[in-house]
Design goal:
The chain is of the alpha+beta class. It has five domains: 151 residues, Rossmann fold; 124 residues, Orthogonal Bundle (Topoisomerase I, domain 2); 116 residues, Topoisomerase I, domain 3 (Distorted Sandwich); 115 residues, Topoisomerase I, domain 4, CATH 1.10.290; 127 residues, no CATH class. 33% of the residues lie in helices and 26% in strands. Strand 29 and strand 30 form a beta hairpin.
Amino acid sequence: MIIAVIAEKNSVAERIAYFLSGGKPKRVNKKGVYYFTFNNDKDEYFVIGLKGHIVELDYPEKYKNWVKDDLKELINIEPVKIEKFKNLINILKEIISKADEVIIATDYDREGELIGREAVEILNYRGKLKRAKFSAVTKDEIMNAFRNLTELNNNLADAAESRQNIDLVWGAVLTRFFSLVTGQKWKNFISVGRVQSPTLALIVDREKKIKNFKPEKYWQLIANFIEKNVEFVGEHEKNPFKERPDNIFNKIKDFKKGEVLELKEREYEIRPPPPFNTTEFLRESTKLGLSVGRTMSIAEDLYSKGYISYPRTDNTVYPPSINLKSLLEKFLNSQYKEEAKELLSQEKIRASRGKVQTTDHPPIYPVKAIKENELKGDYFKVYDLVVKRFFATIAPDSKIKSTDVKISINDEIFNAKGTKVLDEGWMKYYPYLRIREKEIPDLGKEVNIKSIELLEKETKPPERYNQASLIKEMENLNLGTKSTRHEIIEKLYERNYIEGMVIKPTSLGISLVEAMERNNVDAVKPDMTAKLEQDMSAIEEGKMEKAKVIEESKAMLSNVLNELEKNEDNIKKIINTGINEDREMGKCPKCGSPLLMYKNKNFRYIQCSRYPECDFRYYLPKTGKIELTDKQCPVCGLPLIKIIRKGQEVDIKCINPKCEYNKKKETIGECPEDGGELVIRQSKAGKRFIGCSNYPKCKITYPLPQKGEIIPTFEKCPYCGLPLIIVKNGKYEKKQCIDPKCKYNKKGIG
């Protein structure tokens, strides 16, 4: 019998083939498409990996041009399915055409189920079809999945297809409307989406609260005590005071002793944190300095290569099928061996439990113990986070002692609180959650007062979201899913609607939300999106039909479009104001009007807002984020800009690319080929290198380190005569020749 196995990625296909064949699959390369074959008893297997969705929903060719008159019609047009990878699909057809049985082995979730169904539907396969469900790409999980094959879950696939359909129509109609109304095309189009817009509204509304916040004064009375060389703080029992309590302060300010009225000690335990679901995993990963999008990308790679379990899950309870002791034993021959030994020495190994228990996938946990240096950089950071959380969930409780002291100073009561960790327990294994210790020494009837302070303070506005708090709020409001929330946040950054790790909306992001909120457009309200999310869950559970949910969403969208069209002029005015605020780069030196930054398909430039009446215009670097500084060029007096590129020092430049200020910073020395100037350049991919100023006639290039500041020395290398530069990265500083192969870089000056 010929059996075809369809996996979601090539890396997963390779591991499935390896495990099922006993480590002896044959790898076949046909027209650039890899698949694996082997014989198992009487069966011949073909295992092939896809590239996610091999078809995508889109509109017929007739509707590819963005025309405002098409929008109402666009809502009700049936999308078409377009094949994405021709070679892959042709090889897949070839394999499936001779198969007696097809096994879908894609990720077991909505998208995975749809990806598998799309593959057999596009090939018109009508034979025997089975489903392999697994949560980790390990030998035990894969072998168990193929021993216990199930049926394809069409409800799950329908839920994913309904989301695909709904997101396409909402995104297309709203994006085209806003882009056409404001005249923004090509790279500058205004992206609007069903989940994206209410998420952006959360950020904008928080920013408004911060901006409109009016601080109120309050006062705190603090007593600083010292006993046995240990200092601790007590707060007045009536803190905070709305009126300045001068009478109380004057009553006690000169006292040097306080009377201990009451001292209570209590020991308690803190249970370990629950196992990781997707939301908590992404939130904790921000402590590593990673974006949620980067973390999820790494987690998916770690899963497909068999390091961790499936990273998209709501579950916070380990299923009984996971043998915690056996899993711990895997770490005895790893860099985590000491932690594993300690945890295995427990009398009983049992795990903490969260509030959500599902049956599709377990919480995120490590499935493989790595060798030293097997993973590096961000990949190790993410893996290490998963390992440490797993260890914490099966570690003992932390034991804490709290001390509460009530102290009287001339009949005014102050309360001091102390905290001491008696036994770290699970905190020893998970350093990302800690208890801040506050020591209170043994006290007698009196305690020494070091000082008494009356502090004037102000109430603070709410904090801006960071990626961790935003993704949690999205979950609370049912905006998006565990699989899509990180993608929505990344998209808001990409479209220049938000910026910074502490998230702040740009002028464009603010104007887009205001244009909808001021004109009663429900697309920015979470209720509508949450309703559609609930409906898609109902499809998954078999309680609603896909077609009905799609029709309901189209009706909602029609109402939204009607509101938008009624307020078209107002919307245009609000958004264009925001666009110009983000574009403004100072004042025109010729006429004093605002200078605005523009970009199109091929380049970016800065020009006077009165152009062409005023012809002031300069082209800008093609790569990097550009920000205006508050300084003028010391050479020509034009504005200086910051160019921010990932991994490189911030580059300060004059907006005039030919200004001597820029040339001095960029010029490294003389070109050995034609006597031109060797200058620092940036590739389209944002990589810096040294090239000749006479390019394209002279094509000589030299690579540069991508991190650190490059400082010209205008000295020549004693070995080869090329320029020497200094690479400065923090405190590290090194002089080197621009030719990385030169002896100078190995030996230094002879």
